[in-house]
Amino acid sequence: MDEQVVSRRSALIGGAGPFRMLVDFLSRSGYDTRRREPGVLDFTFGDPHEMQLPAYVEALREAALPQDELWFAYKQSEQPAQEAAAASLRRVVPLPWTGDDLRMTTGGFGAITVTMKALADPGDEVVYALPPWFLYEALALEAGLVPVKVAAIQPSFDLDLEAIAAVLTPRTRIVVVNTPNNPSGRIYPPEMLTALADLLEEASTRFGRRIWIVSDEPYNRIVFDGNTFHSPAQFYPHTVICYSYGKTLLAPGQRVGYVAVPPGVPGHDELLDAIDTMQIAGGWLFPNAVMQYAVPDLEALSLDLAGLTAKRDRLVGALRELGYEVSSPEGTFYLWPRSPIPDDEAFVAALSRRGVLVMPGALFETPGWFRICLTATAESIEAALPHFADVLDDVAAAAATPTAATDGQAEMSPLGTSL
């Protein structure tokens, strides 16, 4: 008798490297308890570290007050939310979007999930660049797709177009583009997106099958220094945009986002119908009523971009003075410094022992780097700087005496937190 309890699919996803590291971190490292300890400075996830904007809370409060007996009835995509989102998208991605081009989703996460399943069949290939958002692989595997990974060019972290072209096959259905990029903060310029569009058009013609871009754009409004964001949809019409309000509003626990299919693209209506189907079949994957009612008001709100810029500039400048190699991100709310030692997990562990929590590049399948989240407070940044300085001495001493280990170093979680 076969005593297998869990499905092979769940075992495959659960064993995937980045996903396994993330789950171990969340479930067995004690992270949630440790980040609340006095003196611990948390720079891991894009969570809020200060109370939410009063206007955000008021928008949800107003949206929760029923106006008729169907206020909390089953919802798909609510037209007022679609129209408000389309009006905002027109300002960011200058195409003639209407509400009918969008479907509301449970954040960007849900948007990518249903888009992959609407576009691709099991066995199709999904290409994406490293470092990636650490759940692309899990989403692809869950959909029965084959992840194909291409390293970005270091240290610029531009897309390696030649490498992408080299991995395209007749089975390629999706290329994921994440700009502004998490974790590098890179905004891909028009010439790069134009070249990507040209190679995908050529490959689609050669293989006799359309390759689509899934453009993961949750940070497309978090842009620094007057930089201009450009979406792949402006250069390649066969692009589906996935957006999340959780980044701009710094409220990732309130799940709302959307999928947008460019107007006029061949297969427009068919693809949106397929997305509707996947949302229902996947377990009614629509945002709840309150979040959709609030979208028109939420569109007028944003995190403090000036304050975020100040934190970025302070931390980039200070780390450079200490001797770290770090670029100033063009967008997102992350820094992506190079680890001062090749073993980024050991470096992150050394920081963790000092009470500073960051993420290693290994979690993003790019060893030798680490990620710092700027949603922490300015006070936390100031408190962390002496530790960033002192840990350089720690890792230098450890490198000089590699066999000297303390009990605290005996077992570490994947993100360097003591178990």
UniProtKB/TrEMBL annotation:
One Pfam family matching this protein: Aminotran_1_2
Gene3D superfamilies per UniProt: Type I PLP-dependent aspartate aminotransferase-like (Major domain)
EC number(s) reported in the record: 2.6.1.-
Transit peptide among keywords: no
Family as reported in the entry's similarity comment: Belongs to the class-I pyridoxal-phosphate-dependent aminotransferase family.
Enzymatic class: transferase
Entries under PROSITE patterns matching the protein: AA_TRANSFER_CLASS_1 (PS00105)
Species in which this protein is naturally found: Humibacillus xanthopallidus
Stretches assigned to the Aminotransferase class I/classII large domain: 40-385
PANTHER family xrefs: ASPARTATE AMINOTRANSFERASE YHDR-RELATED (PTHR42691:SF1)
Origin: domain of life: Bacteria
Keywords: Aminotransferase, Transferase
GO molecular function per UniProt: pyridoxal phosphate binding; transaminase activity
Protein name (record): Aminotransferase
Entries under InterPro entries matching the protein: Aminotransferase_I/II_large, NHTrfase_class1_PyrdxlP-BS, PyrdxlP-dep_Trfase, PyrdxlP-dep_Trfase_major
Cofactor list: pyridoxal 5'-phosphate
